[in-house]
Amino acid sequence: MKNTKIVIAAGTGFIGTGLVDYFGNDNDIVILTRQPRKDHHRITYVQWDGKTLDNWSHYLEKADLLINLAGKSVNCRYTEENKKEIFDSRTNATQVLGAAIQTLQHPPALWINAASATIYRHAEDRPMDEFTGEIEDDFSVQVCKRWEESFNETVTPRTRKALLRIGITIGHQGGVMVPYMNLMKFGLGGHQGSGHQKFSWVHIADICGMVEWLYDNKELDGTFNCTAPHPVTNREFVRALRKAGKHYFGLPAFPWMLKIGAWIIGTEAELLLKSRWVLPTRALQAGYVFRYPELQPAMNQIIGQLPRRRYHLV
Ligand SMILES: NC(=O)c1ccc[n+]([C@@H]2O[C@H](COP(=O)([O-])OP(=O)(O)OC[C@H]3O[C@@H](n4cnc5c(N)ncnc54)[C@H](OP(=O)(O)O)[C@@H]3O)[C@@H](O)[C@H]2O)c1
């Protein structure tokens, strides 16, 4: 993509940074954020609060692409207060973007909303995809369902819409690699829980790749799983990480250790123990070619991008 106008709501986080790196040199980027910083090169920061329709909506006029990534991180203790913010930050931002689009003369040509592959049930028996996946009703799934409903309910006749059910994203600028590398550093780079739980991952390059592919293929819309076509088990994941980082040994963490450890560091053991077994069937059927279909090359690429000092000191 070249010389397009791309608006990224909450483009300041891990995935947003990856998208800005990927598209930022050749396109004009507008980032909606609660904490604007100084504009630079072709990137403009615009204040919003993620819930109130305001002047920021004018920046969506004539956009070629709108990407919404807003949401409080789920990497926290699930207190009632945090749960409310996890829920509201996603649904409010999605609803207010939909409301903004409906006021515009020249609305964005395409709106891609983040969603999560966590919407599918804990699965150790068979993979879940867009056609046969089953959805259950724990807290994370309720968030995902309402988040998707907020997006799907909004009628935007002049804006094509696509939803990306994103898997656990790996990249050198953040996300799960940071805690995993910390565990590795303390010799805890073994599997978590039984280690048989599936880990549906995706390289950040494939999020960027799928966004560009959806933009180029104007006949596509609706829900797409954004996960690599070869998910692994938790054991295989940590083994690939150890291999890439040249750590030959790692102690495993049993479920009770994870529950205590998660409590101490203020997160939820569920994030590590849920078996996420998801396949990107629609993307494969429609011809998307993954840059990183297999984990080990993805992991090697990421570890290779890290300054050695950072890798050893995190
Ligand atoms: N990373 C993954 O593995 C993964 C997997 C599946 C789905 N996703 C989804 O993809 C989206 C982006 O993920 P990410 O890893 O880039 O997340 P991230 O690094 O936590 O960034 C999310 C951004 O959302 C904004 N935000 C946070 N709390 C907010 C609130 N209360 N109200 C409005 N905005 C708020 C922040 O932007 P400002 O501070 O600039 O406003 C933040 O930079 C999220 O919705 C996430 O759930 C991520």
TrEMBL record:
Residues 256-302 form the DUF1731 domain. It comes from the Bacteria. Residues 7-217 form the NAD-dependent epimerase/dehydratase domain. It holds the Pfam family Epimerase. InterPro entries: DUF1731, Epimerase_deHydtase, NAD(P)-bd_dom_sf, SDR39U1. Belongs to the NAD(P)-dependent epimerase/dehydratase family. SDR39U1 subfamily. PANTHER family: EPIMERASE FAMILY PROTEIN SDR39U1, SUGAR NUCLEOTIDE EPIMERASE RELATED. This is TIGR01777 family protein.
